[in-house]
Amino acid sequence: MHVPLIVTDFLDRAVTLYGDKVAVIDDHKSITYRELNERVNQLSYGLGSLGVQKGDKVAYLAPNTLEMLEGFYGVFQLGAVMVPLNIRLQPHDYTFILNHSESKILFVDQELVHLIEPIISDLTSVEKILVHHCTNENKEFTDYDAWLSRYSKTEYPRATIDEEDVASLLYTSGTTGNPKGVMLTHRNNYLHALTTMHHLRVSDRDILLHILPMFHVNGWGSPFYYTANGATQVMLRKALPELVFEKIQKYGVTIAHMAPTVLNSLLEYHKQFQPKIEEKMRVVIAGSAPPPAFVGRVEEDLGWEFIQVYGMTEISPLVTTSQIRSEYLDLPKEDQYRLKAKAGYAMIGCKVKVINDDGEEVAKNGKEIGEIVTRSNGVMKGYWKNDEATMDTIRNGWLHTGDMATVDERGYIDIVDRKKDVIISGGENISSIEVEGVLYEHPAILEAAVVSIPHEKWGEVPHAVIVVREGHLVSGDEIIAFCREKLAHFKAPKSVSFTEELPKTASGKIQKVHIRKEFWKTDRLVN
């Protein structure tokens, strides 16, 4: 008999096996898995009373909180679709996403209400707005806690759901044009959870700190596979280094997912304040490849295990991991760090290739560059109401990621850049990630981003935007000279600018598109 793969199974399992165990620790409360399930039932009954039916969209604008986590399961019991919203957008972005997704109900955290207030009259499908921890007098808003308390905690009669039904609709940040809504099914989320929990060694002994925002591809699936394993989940509203260390110490955190920039801020904070670390934690990182020395600092200075992974919203999201395979455990530490810094090799259930323009796999020499393509059970159903973009992304059964990479002789994939971030200077391809890796070796550099800028002779050349470490002084000429010692001269930045802060997404990813825009919107050329 075929049993459909529905993600509500995960909470059911946790309640059965870990009902009395602490499920969630939030700033204002701590609850067990049984209590979490009761709140989920109340939410489902409440949504039903508002007319929410199978297939309806329910949007959430909230940081990592208990209310955000219970939203997934409360929405799913009705066969409705969860639409988590990026908390760092502008009001007009929410107008587009809420209207495009046809969201019927919107849940908002009190601290984010100001992002919704200006656009209420522009929303075409939203029928009700409920506010978590509401202190607002606006008659448009309903207080969530008071509303939730009116409904039964008893088992909710679930809708009949097929594993190919859409569970979540996640909008990718649009670098050009409007964001696209990625449809992930119950099957996508379920099989991704099974694959990922294996590779990350998730168990009921884990205590997860939710650093990566849950709207960000569902925090890399964390509401699913940590729940399925009965792990305790500690909420974090803002990824401030002092708060992260405080919660790690207080609750004995064993694992956390975060962006490289957040991990870098933790390294800096640790270097300055030396907070006590007792737990050997696993840190799961996705994003541009860090320098091997960065991996070394995490493992030696913090005593944490560094796990680099790779994925994107359209693939649920993870398909590779860089953990050292057994045959390479005898390699020198430096070589191991180099491997750990790469995107790595395919997870179970995923096929991943790097192909050239002719569709052939690149040579395993660490030099030939191609595009990463993948097939897996995690590949999205498609973009909501955008067949053209779906067909452009999924071709001949393979999803084209737009990420450019090499493959080394051991089969480890190494991302060199986004297709749009590769700098083509005088016909030569330059990886901005490679240049940034060198910049991070400079003792005065805290953060760096390398982008292309227009050039009269070469078409475009690399430019470095630098955040200088506190207490250090460095000139642009010094930085260029430093890079020229370590790179081919054409790869070294031709110019440098300094800033106090780099623009970042809510997950901590540096937004190069905003940096690049500043240089390309003018007519000035670098000579």
Structure described in brief:
Helices cover 30% and strands 26% of the residues. It contains 15 helices and 27 strands.
Please write out the topology:
Layout (H helix, E strand, L loop, with lengths): L7 H11 L3 E4 L4 E3 H17 L7 E5 L4 H11 L4 E4 L6 H11 L1 E7 L18 E5 L8 E3 H5 L17 E7 L7 E6 H14 L7 E4 L6 H12 L3 E4 L5 H11 L3 E4 L1 H14 L8 E5 L5 H11 L2 E7 L6 E4 L11 H8 L4 E2 L3 E6 L14 E7 L5 E2 L3 H7 E2 L2 E10 L5 E6 L4 E3 L2 E3 L1 H8 L5 E11 L3 E10 L7 H11 L8 E4 L13 H9 L7
Parallel strand pairs: 1-11, 3-4, 3-5, 5-6, 6-7, 10-11, 10-12, 12-13, 13-14, 26-27
Antiparallel strand pairs: 1-2, 8-9, 9-19, 14-15, 15-16, 17-18, 18-21, 20-21, 21-22, 23-24, 25-26
Helix pairs in contact: 1-7, 2-3, 6-7, 8-9, 9-10, 10-11
Describe, in plain words, how this protein is organized in 3D.
By secondary structure, this protein is of the alpha/beta class. It folds into three domains: 26-186, ANL, N-terminal domain (Rossmann fold), CATH 3.40.50.12780; 239-419, Rossmann fold (3-Layer(aba) Sandwich), CATH 3.40.50; 422-520, GMP Synthetase, Chain A, domain 3 (2-Layer Sandwich). Helix content is 30%, strand content 26%. It is built from 15 helices and 27 strands. The strands form six sheets. It has a nine-stranded mixed beta sheet, sandwiched between helices. A hairpin with a 4-residue loop joins strand 1 and strand 2. Helix 1 runs parallel beside helix 7 (217-228) and helix 9 (260-273) crosses helix 10. It starts with 7 loop residues before the first helix and ends in a 7-residue tail after the last helix.
